[in-house]
Design brief:
Blueprint lengths: L3 H5 L6 H11 L7 H4 L3 H8 L5 E2 L8 E5 L6 H11 L4 E6 L10 H10 L3 E2 L3 H7 L16 H12 L3 H9 L3 E6 L2 E6 L16 H11 L3 E3 L7 E5 L2 E5 L13 E7 L4 E7 L3 H10 L4 H9 L3 H25 L4 H17 L1 H4 L3 H13 L11 H11 L7 H12 L11 H4 L3 H19 L8 E8 L3 E8 L4 H9 L2 H7 L2 E8 L2
Parallel strand pairs: 1-5, 2-3, 3-4, 6-7, 7-9, 13-14
Antiparallel strand pairs: 2-10, 5-6, 8-9, 10-11, 12-13
Helix pairs in contact: 2-20, 7-8, 11-12, 12-13, 13-16, 14-16, 14-20, 16-18, 16-20, 17-18, 18-20, 20-21, 20-22
């Protein structure tokens, strides 16, 4: 174990220090800390309970481009603007959520400012603006998992001071009057909380909204699904997600509204979804975000699809492991302990479902190199993972999973190792964190007797305590896990301690 002085002043960059460097390296105009600060009282005053803003009224014979939920997807926004430019639109009305999920928050906000779009703030925009207010939460929003919170912080860090200020100035509602029609532009439904208006919302519920809206036309977003419907003379219009869709169609969505005569037309336009997804990956944002872009599905739908797909892939991984006569009992125990550690420490590492899957695969495969003997078996495991075409990995995943398995013992991750150097910087940091967890888990089954039955953890700024419920004398497991905790302490910048509690 390291002494406290070394813990507080490590010579090796911590996980969070490296993560911060990665985020900062993507920012072109880094705002100073003082400029980026949002005072708590000011944020609460300006971001909550904003009244509807009234604007100079546009001409009634114009056509209006309706967009919403651009979500930092610049390729999609460009495609929408180009497609709509030939349809005679005179103004852009934006139903909010300029930021989030995509890799181009600053470019999207800047482009919509340049286009003089009339915009309202969305719920994701509010989350981004409240990054510095750790104890504050946007009304109606559930607590985000660590991976999503990190993505929100990334978005804040990648907005210029000027664009943060602009986003902060946007109201929650805009009221306009065109050709005698009262129009309400908002992000969510007029009801408080997170209730959405969707194509499935019954007319009866829409009638309940009417007296709250006090308008003839409500233009909104949030559900990422386009539709327009008239109920008792009140029009409900959702142009769909320009940059994020939830209906299984990945094309960008928008609408054009004409006042006199009144008409609404919905459009879908192709754009380079591969480019948008690649930018998400290159910036170290969650793979779920990339899949949402590629598939046009919600985060929950994508997560469910990935979970099903990964279960099938795990079966292929297990088949490969079985084909080389691996120690199934030991590998299963190490994998189980690694999964428990990953889940227990999620607030510390901030990783998500994709990284958890990589760790699970590496746990199953980490000892397959024993087929050629104990000596150097970690390197043999890497070689098999990189070469075996039956494993359900692309080249990138082979390098990642192979690296995690290779670093379960002996030398620590090093850019002098070709397979590790081939990874992106953010991927190397993830491999370090996952390898650190696997090393400890492997040490906790050193005698291969599956003595550790369960794990809990206690995390403080200086230390991580792993509490192990054991069924027998596990002092050797504790000793080996502490010895293999060197990478853990370096990655997470905390001393590691392990306690044993004998259980029946």
């Amino acid at each position: 174990m390291k002494d406290k002085k070394k813990s507080k002043n490590p010579t090796v960059s911590s996980w969070w220090e490296e993560r911060h460097k990665i985020l900062q390296s993507t920012i072109k105009n880094k705002p100073a800390k003082a400029e980026a600060k949002i005072k708590k009282a000011e944020a609460k005053k300006e971001l909550q309970n904003l009244p509807a803003t009234e604007l100079p009224q546009p001409a009634e014979n114009g056509a209006f481009l309706l967009i919403g939920d651009v979500h930092a997807n610049l390729p999609a926004l460009k495609a929408v603007l180009e497609d709509a430019s030939n349809k005679g639109v005179s103004e852009i009305w934006n139903a909010g959520d300029l930021t989030g999920y995509g890799a181009f928050p600053d470019d999207v906000v800047g482009r919509l400012r340049k286009e003089n779009a009339q915009s309202v703030v969305g719920n994701y925009d509010l989350k981004v603006l409240m990054v510095k207010e750790k104890k504050e939460e946007v009304e109606g929003e559930k607590e985000e998992p660590p991976q999503d919170r990190n993505a929100i912080k990334w978005t804040y860090a990648n907005l210029s001071k000027k664009n943060r200020k602009y986003l902060k100035s946007l109201p929650e509602e805009l009221r306009l009057e065109v050709g005698g029609k009262r129009i309400l532009l908002t992000h969510r439904s007029p009801l408080p909380g997170d209730e959405q208006i969707s194509p499935e919302t019954p007319d009866e519920k829409l009638r309940d909204f009417a007296h709250l809206a006090d308008a003839d036309v409500i233009i909104f977003g949030h559900s990422h699904r386009p539709f327009s419907r008239q109920v008792d003379g009140l029009w409900f219009i959702n142009p769909g997600g320009a940059g994020r869709q939830d209906d299984g169609d990945p094309r960008a969505s928008y609408a054009i509204m004409q006042i006199n005569p009144f008409e609404v037309k919905h459009y879908r336009v192709d754009y380079d979804v591969e480019k948008a997804a690649a930018a998400i990956r290159e910036n170290g944002l969650p793979e779920v975000f990339a899949q949402m872009t590629l598939q046009g599905l919600s985060p929950d739908a994508v997560a469910q699809e990935l979970s099903k797909k990964n279960e099938q892939r795990l079966e292929e991984v297990r088949k490969t492991a079985s084909s080389v006569s691996y120690n199934e009992g030991h590998s299963s125990q190490v994998t189980r302990l690694a999964m428990r550690l990953f889940d227990e420490l999620k607030e510390l590492h901030g990783l998500g479902a994709e990284e958890r899957f990589w760790l699970q695969c590496a746990g199953i495969l980490h000892d397959i190199g024993w087929i050629e003997g104990q000596k150097g078996h970690h390197k043999t495991s890497l070689r098999i993972i990189l070469a075996d075409q039956h494993l359900p990995f692309d080249e990138r995943e082979r390098n990642i999973v192979g690296s995690i398995a290779r670093y379960h013992r002996r030398k620590l991750p090093n850019k002098g190792h070709r397979h590790f150097a081939a990874l992106r910087r953010d991927e190397r940091q993830k491999v370090k964190a996952l390898s650190a967890i696997l090393r400890v888990a492997d040490g906790l089954d050193f005698t291969q007797q599956s003595l550790v039955k369960d794990i809990t953890s206690e995390v403080s700024p200086d230390q991580v305590i792993i509490n192990c419920a054991v069924s027998g004398d596990a002092e050797i497991e504790k000793e080996r896990a502490m010895k293999k905790g060197d990478l853990f302490e370096k990655v997470f910048n905390r001393d590691l301690a392990i306690s044993l509690d004998l259980v029946p």
